[in-house]
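During the no-cost extension, the postdoctoral fellow (Dr. R.K.) reprocessed legacy sequence entries with the updated structure-token encoder. One reprocessed record is reproduced below for audit purposes.
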Amino acid sequence: MVARATVTSTANGHVLQYPFTPSARGRSRNVFDPLPERAFSKMSSDDAYSSFLDKANQDAGDSGTATKSTSGSVRIVNTEIPASLQRIEQYYTSEADEPFEPVSLKWDGKQMPSSKEFQQLLKLDSEVETLEMEKFDPHKQYQDIVNAVEGSSEAKATVFRTAHGKTRVEYYVVGFDKDMGRVVGMKATAVES
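Re-encoded structure tokens follow.
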């Protein structure tokens, strides 16, 4: 058990209290002093760091096993991606700052799918909701994404949102390309805690 004490001194007429912890060698160490170099450990490799980040991003209630509704296993391309969407290099700003990824899925419908139809198209277990564009992009920072999606389809862009656990969210900014029979757009993965 480590003893803690307080040292009191007077400076400029004010009483100041400094906490300190006695060291193992009998000397006192002020808790505001920098920690010794040995107090910090280093990650052994990039793989170890990546593993640490993956574990930190999992929900506390998750068992750590992947399911088909996690972001990495949902197939979002099964037909040709429009060239205008392949050139986009933009990140969605959240706690993770993930890049937007192209979406191009065959769709036999006559119009843009509903949120339920989009959920079935992606084969997701989690619920999909439709968002207003202003709620997805209130500061118009993703207008290039919206313009590219609308330029690749015949419809105004629609935003779908799906949650995976308590903190991982996916946003799909998509439009309907009736001539090619496909839903095209961009997907962003976000961490929202």
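The first strand starts at residue 5 and ends at 11. Residues 16 and 112 are 68 Å apart (CA to CA). The remaining legacy entries will be reprocessed before the final report is submitted.
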